[in-house]
Amino acid sequence: MVKEVFNYFMMASVIIGFVFIITTLQSKRAKDNSIFYLNLVVLFFTLNNLQIVLIDNVFQEANFFIRNMLLPFYALIVPAFYTFVSYYLNVEKKITSFVAFSTILFLVELINRIVFFKLYYEIDDCYIVAKYSQIEEIFNALFSLFLFVKSIQLLFYKTKFYSYTASYDNVKWLKKFLFLGSVILLTWIGAIVFNIDEVLNPQIFIYYPLRLSSSLLLFWLGYQGVFNYSLMYERIQLREAISNEPNNIDEELKTNSKSSKFLIIKNHIENNKNYLNPNYSLELLSSELKMSVSSLSKTINDESGFSFSDYINSLRVEKAKQLLTSADFSQYTILSIGLECGFNSKSSFYLAFKKFTNTTPTDYRKQNS
Predict the structure, then answer these.
(1) Would you tell me how many other CB atoms lie within 10 Å of the CB of residue 257?
(2) How far apart are CA 97 and CA 82, in angstroms?
(3) Distance between CA 281 and CA 269 in Å, rounded?
(4) Which terminus of the chain, N or C, has fewer Cβ atoms within 10 Å?
(5) Contact 341, 355 (CB under 8 A)
(6) CA-CA distances (angstroms) from residue 201 to 34, 53, 98, 213, 302?
């Protein structure tokens, strides 16, 4: 019963894997290096699962060599992931690439299969084949662990390397994957150790939860990778467009002395686009204009009728309205527009937008498209 459930899950994972790859290949950014290597991660994992499905359900009577010497696609999963991370963070020129080494390693392991295939049929020795398979798995696991540690070092200890990317994505999703992936990787190593003395008859059942959990995690990575990469791409385009907008100096600043203090504040915030900073605060404005916090707060409240936070949010909403109705950004997600307008999350964007317009960003876009 357990094995049947496992087989159905593995079949489903293969189908999902190929559907994911076909879908992403049809996207606008399919040729981007990040998406290319993310697709390779899913492809290698899917091909590895496909072999397992075929052996367990189609080629059940296959000989010992075929069952124990599957093509080592699993050896390329972590190298492809490491390369994906390097391109996603835009640091591929700052760190060592392992693409060439991983490719050579894979080819060597393929050649070894040809050698052992001939050896197996000449001397009919299952132990030699099984022992090589075990040694190969140990080496691949250690190499994968090495690259995983390199990924952890990059994300957690070399943050200066990807400061540009961090301004668009806090990469929390990637850090979460590394944590969960580390657990699975260590579980894999534990399974190898558990079977270290079982060369000819390893306990396969111990790999079942490992394959199930790794399948779920890798498809989650695929979704998150495509989603966050697309989101980051849109935010880069939006930020560039906003930064190229001309500044407008309020003429009233020169003629209306009564409101000049507020207009100084207003022009400073709007022309410097400070409201786009999600962490912008009254204290920061006070430091920039060399005015007291209390004076700024009173002036903004008296002249605009809003508290500082509401005033800033009103500017963000106005900018969002402009972008939502722009033909240039009609295909961009509402989330990317909200984040680039200074909101920390989709929920905070929706709440503020509803407060100032009595409608949601989605409905506003539909009504004005």
Answers:
(1) 9
(2) 9
(3) 11
(4) N
(5) no
(6) 40, 19, 33, 23, 81
SS3 of residue 91 by DSSP: coil
Predicted TM-score (pTM) of the model is 0.83
Q: Rounded CA gap, 219 and 16, in Å?
A: 8
Q: What kind and span of H or E run contains 279?
A: none
Is the distance from CB of 102 to CB of 144 less than 8 angstroms? no
| Measured distance CA(46)–CA(218) in Å, rounded | 10
In the structure, what pLDDT confidence band is assigned to residue 368 with cuts at 50, 70 and 90? Answer: confident
Give me the sign of the Cα torsion angle 39, 44, 49, 53. Answer: positive
Domain spans of the chain, in order of start: 2-240, 248-367
Q: State the pLDDT at residue 347.
A: 94
Q: Determine the CATH number of domain 2-240.
A: 1.20.1070
Predicted confidence (pLDDT) at residue 359 exceeds the cutoff of 60: yes
CB atoms within 10 A of CB 158: 14
What is the average pLDDT value for the chain, to the nearest integer? 87
The residue type at 116 = F
Amino acid in position 67: R
pLDDT grade for 250, boundaries at 50, 70 and 90? low
Which two three-digit tokens encode residue 145?
């662990």
For residues 300 and 262, is the Cβ–Cβ distance under 8 A? Answer: yes
pLDDT value at position 275? 93
End-to-end CA distance of the chain: 54
Report pLDDT digits (tens) over 149-197. Answer: 999 999 998 888 888 888 888 888 999 999 988 988 988 898 888 888 8
Residue 341 CB-density burial (10 A; 0-12 exposed, 13-18 middle, 19+ buried): buried
More confident residue, 212 or 232: 232
Per DSSP, the residues of 9-44 read HHHHHHHHHHHHHHHHHTSTTTTSHHHHHHHHHHHH
CA distance 285 to 290: 8
15 vs 30, 45, 194, 240, CA distance in Å? 20, 12, 31, 39
Rounded distance, CA 45 to CA 41, Å? 6
- pLDDT at residue number 9: 82
Task: Read off the pLDDT of each residue in 2-8 and give the average, rounded to a whole number.
Answer: 77
